[in-house]
Design a protein that fits this description.
Layout lengths: L26 E2 L1 H9 L1 H9 L8 H16 L9 H18 L14 H20 L9 E9 L5 E11 L5 E7 L9 H19 L5 E6 L5 E5 L3 H24 L36 H5 L2 H7 L1
Parallel strand pairs: 1-3, 4-5
Antiparallel strand pairs: 2-3, 3-4, 5-6
Helix pairs in contact: 1-2, 3-4, 3-5, 4-5, 6-7
């Protein structure tokens, strides 16, 4: 049999093989910065491994209440009432289910919807607390649920979502964030205010305007407002801290060392069963780890000696 002429063979293109890829982090948000400061392993499991987490009743309730408060300001002043807010709960819950179907897992055995009704009643109490501490009819937010982001001179991208920005007629900016939990004691207030200073830094760098006031609106425990007026020194200190955090994250990416930091939040962590501090085993690290020599010698120097 005569061998086939390769030049006459049909041009067959093999399908491309798509290998799972790990996307390296390229920015910092208040939540992810908080994760790394709380527990580097938690940051890794969320950002590098991207492990799914089951929906939390408290977190989902917070998302729902935030959505209602955002939509409340669609109504004209005078129509922003407690009844109007309560009327938004069910529609926003249905919308949330469409966007995040996994939220239905919160009530798996709730055939008569009594658990859902109780959960929504708790959300109503949070909304009632809001009206006790703030009158939305006297406000006209400049922005709601706004993505703010800026790139520092170092190249680090900072980004996050601000619940509300108010601008006074004289130009002063107030940054507002809703919290559905209780106001923390002064010993733990700094963590929440760090988030607000993060937002203030981004707005300052992005717009050239230093926010006059940072305001945390706590709806749990009957409601309470915690305010802070930042200055440039505050925000420069936050900027230095974020750059140091980013350097530490880059080092962890190279070494693969993401230590667990047991703390009082461990009992609520979705990844506790994988944590070595609690007898678990995290998944294999998905990134290549540099050798000690590669970590010590700059890449350019290695190329020059090759």
């Amino acid at each position: 049999m005569q061998a086939a002429d390769p030049s006459t063979a049909p041009d067959v293109t093999l399908p491309a093989v798509t290998l799972p890829a790990v996307t390296l982090p390229s920015s910092l948000s208040p939540s992810r910065a908080g994760d790394f400061m709380t527990c580097p392993l938690l940051y890794r499991l969320r950002v590098i491994d991207k492990l799914p987490e089951p929906p939390s009743p408290a977190a989902t309730k917070g998302t729902l209440v935030h959505a209602v408060l955002e939509r409340l300001f669609d109504a004209p002043a005078g129509a922003r009432t407690p009844d109007a807010a309560r009327a938004l709960l069910r529609p926003e819950w249905e919308k949330l289910l469409l966007e995040r179907p996994e939220a239905a897992e919160l009530f798996p055995a709730d055939a008569d919807a009594t658990e859902l009704a109780s959960w929504l009643a708790e959300a109503e109490k949070l909304l009632d607390a809001y009206f006790r501490i703030e009158d939305p009819n006297r406000l006209q937010p400049a922005e709601r649920e706004l993505l703010v982001q800026t790139t520092l001179e170092s190249g680090l991208l900072l980004r996050g979502y601000v619940d509300r920005i108010d601008v006074a007629p004289t130009g002063e900016v107030r940054v507002v964030d809703y919290k559905t939990g209780r106001a923390p004691s002064r010993d733990f207030e700094g963590k929440a205010m760090f988030q607000m200073k993060f937002y203030a830094l981004v707005i300052w760098r992005e717009r050239g305007v230093l926010p006059k006031r940072l305001q945390l609106v706590y709806l749990g425990g009957g409601g309470q407002i915690v305010s802070y007026d930042p200055d440039e020194a505050d925000l420069l200190a936050v900027e230095r801290k974020l750059l140091a955090l980013w350097t530490a994250i880059q080092q962890a990416l190279e070494t693969g060392e993401w230590p667990a930091s047991p703390n009082r939040l461990c009992d609520w962590c979705a990844h506790k069963s994988r944590c070595p501090a609690w007898g678990g085993t995290p998944p294999a690290y998905p990134l290549e780890i540099k050798t000690a020599l590669e970590q010590a010698v700059p890449e350019q120097a290695l190329n020059e000696t090759a």
